[in-house]
Every structure is written in C-alpha cells, then in structure tokens.
C-alpha cells in the first residue's frame, strides 16, 4: 500500500560574501534537501457499549470513553515523536541510543545494557546546552523532556529549588521546576526507555524544529449501533506521520543536529 508522503524542505545555512564595488553578487549554490514524511500511522481506540450498560450506567460513561480515547491516541502520537530521539546526534534510530550521553556528565558515551547510565547533573545539562549552542540551534523554542526519576533528581539540587538560588523558593512550595537556563522543562512518564537488560530512561533536549508531525486526520470519534450485539460501537482514530527534521548530523558536522539524548536511571 502506498502512503501519502509530504516533502518538507530542509534548507542548509549559507555564508555571507563580501561585496566588491561594481561587481555582481556572489550566488550561493543551491544545496537544499528535503525530509519525506510518510503518513503511515493509523491508530484507533474502540469500545463496545452494551445496551444494558448504556441503560444502567451513569451518563458520564460515554464521556469517560471519549476522554480516554483522546488520551490514548495523544499518548501514541507523543510516543512516536519521543522515539525520534533514537536518531539524535547521528544515531542509528534504534532503542540502543548508541550516540547518547550519560546523565552524570553529558560527555561520556552511553553504552546500551552496560548500566553506565547515571543520574542527571547540572554539568550534563550545561554540556548539552552547549552542544545545541555549538550547532547554532536557535535559543528560543528549545525544550527539555525528562522522566519522573530525573524530576526527582532535580528537586534535590539546591540551585534549582532553594530561594538562595532562584529567588522565590516556589519550586519547593509547588514542586514545579519551570525552566532551566531559559529552557522549559517537561516531565513525562512516556519518556523513552533504552533497549537491553537494565534499561535506562532517556532525557531529550532539543529544538521544536528538530522533528515534524504531519496530521492528515485529526482525532475523530464515531458511533455505530450493532444490532447483532445489541450494543453501540464507539471508535476514535487518527492518521498521521512523524519524521526527524534536523538530527542526522553529528556534533561539529553540518551544524544541523537539533536534539540530544541523556541516559539516566529508571
């Protein structure tokens, strides 16, 4: 089956050229590429609501299924986007995360199934920020996605919570990390897990433009009465595709890596 494949432009950066008097401008050779996004992900959520249940249950039952469908489908989209980080920093796109770094220093290479992952530190965060800076990644629209175990670690680091460092002490009162060095922090139990024995969790720091989501059919809900079952079939579904937009180049190469992964304990 052939799937629709949008073509997303992926232009490369050019360089300025000195303009000499009375001479033509210097044209920059066109070296633009593209990223093809296959819309091949079709997920659904279905429930069969028996007539007896419909008649005797609370009116909120159908609303629960609707909300649950939205959550389940959104989580699946989130999973597919998060797993794009498997190709971070020129990685092979596998759950081994063979180009990730450990959370302890942000420099040591993570080795799958070796148990060399380590808890997130301020040094690792700063080193990863530098990697984005070295790759000319824009300062705005960056993000830092961490698993709950790393949120626990950050809440124990004084410089991120105590009033002497952050001014108000709100992090201790509310438990909200907010942002680190100007980068919004998002905590998700859906953070990826590495493959192999003793699997680690993965933190992702990157830029919004590092990945793309193409949604051909937004989440929709439909119902159909099934007389043979004396029940109502409720189904929600969505059709979309995802792709890494700027992840293929390694550090110091084409200045296009826009997200990096850190391996931390589960």
In short:
Helix content is 24%, strand content 28%. With 266 residues, it is an alpha+beta fold. The longest helix has 23 residues.
Folded structure, characterized:
- The chain has one domain: phage-related protein like fold (Alpha-Beta Complex), CATH 3.90.1690.
- A hairpin with a 2-residue loop joins strand 6 and strand 7.
- Helices cover 24% and strands 28% of the residues.
- The two termini are 39 Å apart.
- A 6-stranded mixed beta sheet has the order 4-11-8-5-7-6. It has a 3-stranded antiparallel beta sheet with strand order 3-10-9. It has a two-stranded antiparallel sheet with strand order 1-2.
- It has 7 helices and 11 strands.
- With 266 residues, it is α+β, with helices and mostly antiparallel strands.
What are the salient characteristics of this protein?
about 270 residues; six-stranded mixed beta sheet; phage-related protein like fold; three-stranded antiparallel beta sheet; globular; about 30% strand; alpha+beta
């Amino acid at each position: 089956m052939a799937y629709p494949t949008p073509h997303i432009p992926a232009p490369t950066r050019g360089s300025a050229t000195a303009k000499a008097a009375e001479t033509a401008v210097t044209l920059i050779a066109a070296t633009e590429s593209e990223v093809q996004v296959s819309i091949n992900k079709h997920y659904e959520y279905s429930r069969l609501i028996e007539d007896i249940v419909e008649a005797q249950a609370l009116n909120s039952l159908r609303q629960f299924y609707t909300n649950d469908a939205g959550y389940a489908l959104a989580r699946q989209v989130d999973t597919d986007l998060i797993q794009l980080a498997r190709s971070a920093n020129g990685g092979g796109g596998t759950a081994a995360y063979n180009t990730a770094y450990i959370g302890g220093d942000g420099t040591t290479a993570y080795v799958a199934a070796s148990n060399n992952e380590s808890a997130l530190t301020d040094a690792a965060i700063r080193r990863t920020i530098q990697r984005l800076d070295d790759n000319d990644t824009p300062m705005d629209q960056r993000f830092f996605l961490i698993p709950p175990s790393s949120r626990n670690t950050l809440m124990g680091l004084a410089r991120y919570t105590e009033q002497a460092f952050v001014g108000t002490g709100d992090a201790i009162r509310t438990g909200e990390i907010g942002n680190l060095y100007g980068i919004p922090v998002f905590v998700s139990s859906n953070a990826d897990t590495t493959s192999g024995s003793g699997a680690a969790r993965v933190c992702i720091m990157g830029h919004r433009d590092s990945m793309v989501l193409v949604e051909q059919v937004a989440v929709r809900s439909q119902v159909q009465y099934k007389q043979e079952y004396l029940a109502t079939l409720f189904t929600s579904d969505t059709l979309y595709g995802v792709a890494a937009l700027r992840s293929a180049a390694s550090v110091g190469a084409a200045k296009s890596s826009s997200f990096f992964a850190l391996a931390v304990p589960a």
